[in-house]
Amino acid sequence: MALKKPNWSNWREKLKNVYRFQIVDEKSYDVKMVLELNRLNVLVGVGLLLAFFTLLNFLLIAYTPLKQYIPGYGSSSGRKEVVKMSMKAEELDEKIKAQQEYISNLQNILNDKVVVDAVTSNLKKSKVDTGILSIKTTDESKFVQDVEKGLKNAELMESVHDTKTSILNNLQLQKPVSGTILTKFSQTNPAISFSAGNDEDVRAVISGNVILTGNSPESGYYIVIQAENQLVYILKNNSQLLKKTGNFVNSGEILAKAGKNNSSKTYISTLELWYRGQAIDATKFIK
Prior knowledge:
alpha+beta; Glucose Permease (Domain IIA); ten-stranded antiparallel β-sheet; two-stranded antiparallel sheet; rod-shaped
């Protein structure tokens, strides 16, 4: 069956057929409005309306802030701000992680849970040949551990006396209180204690920033101050703290009030000195 060819001449004629649209008053039959249209006019009118609204939509998007709401569209300055904020967020995240790790290490120090590798030292380390000590037997194991511990301490003291890399050669500390030394430094007890008067002022032994304060049943109120070049000292056994975290203190400035020792019931002040993550005998540097 052959397909019937469309008669385009009839279509063109139909496009020109005029249709009348009237609005008539029902009572008086007066004609209120007459609208004569043909299909061609309707198509042209609809096309013009579509073109008008398309142009209006383009102008609104191109020249008004509405374009910012289009997904994936944005100004170059806006994209730069987003990238900058993302970089700042990453930097802040890294700083927060480092600060949390630093505070965790300080808490380990305060709770006598010393982590030897908590702070990485940049000092030049001397090579020590242990010789036959590297060959360990069951009977010698404890002896070798003690010797290796001594070698580590000797290495640390060598870095301390190195005038080119250490600040401890010219370090001078003042006593936190006016009393005498009661307990001395040892490997098992890194703190030294001073006798103090009733509610005597506890003073800063060297200038620095207060980085941590707190209270514990064993140490009472404690305050941690960081000086230059990874030098940190802790004052424990206080009855009252007069400084807060973030304060900068000068040498000799009052930090706290001395508290009573739980066992002897006498007033004391306890000092710990830490350098690059390891305990140091503070008595060697007191004026």
